[in-house]
Fold this sequence. Notes:
Elements: H1 3-31, H2 38-45, H3 49-55, H4 60-63, H5 67-79, H6 87-100, H7 111-118, H8 121-146, H9 149-175, H10 180-202
Organism: Nonomuraea muscovyensis
Keywords: DNA-binding, Transcription, Transcription regulation
InterPro entries: Homeodomain-like_sf, HTH-type_TetR-like_transc_reg, HTH_TetR
Amino acid sequence: xxIDTLGLREQKKRETRQAISDHxxxxxxxxxxxxxxxxxxxxxxxxxxxxxxxxFPRKEDLALDHHEEFAASLAATVAARxxxxxxLAALRREFMDAVRRHDPVVGFxxxxxxxxxxxxxxxxxxxxxxxxQREDALAERLAEETGDExxxxxxxxxxxxxxxxxxxxxxxxxxxxxxxGEIAAALTEAATRVFDLLExxxxxxxxx
Length: 208
C-alpha cells in the first residue's frame, strides 16, 4: 500500500469523524443531548451506528469533542514551558492567551452550547470527570519532573481548582447572555486575581 493511499485513508477518517461530530452537535443543540440517540446521529451523518461508536465510544464525547485536548491541556502546557519558567507562570500565560483567542477548550463555546451542557446532568457529570482527569495528568507530570508526588498533587490540586473556577465563571457569564468580548475582559481580570493569589505559595515551584 502506497504512502498516498494511507494518506487518503487517514484524511477520509478525519472527514468522517468531523462529519459525525458536526451532525451530532446540530442535533444536540436542536433536541437536547439526552433526547438525541446514537441512531439519530448515525442517520443524520449517513453512517452505521457502529461507525459512530467506533469514532466516539461515549456519547458524551460527541458533545465534548475537545475532551482529549482538554484533559491533557494543563500537563501539556507545563511540559512545553520555557527555561526559567515555573509551572504557575506557564499556566497563567497560556490561560491568558487562550482567553485572547476565545479558545473553546477553556470554555468559549457560545450560549446555545453552554445551555445544552448545563441542561444535561450526563454532560455536567462528564465535564466534572474531565476536570479531574486534567488535574491528575498535571499531577503526574509534576511528580515525574520533581520526584515528589505528594507536593505535585498538592500543587496540581490548587492549579486545577483555579482552572475549574475560571471555567465556571466563563460558563456563568455565557449563560447570562454576556458578549464574548465582555466575557474575555472579565475573565482576564478574574484570572489575574486568581493566579496572583497562588503566586506566594507556588510561584517558584517547578521552575524549568
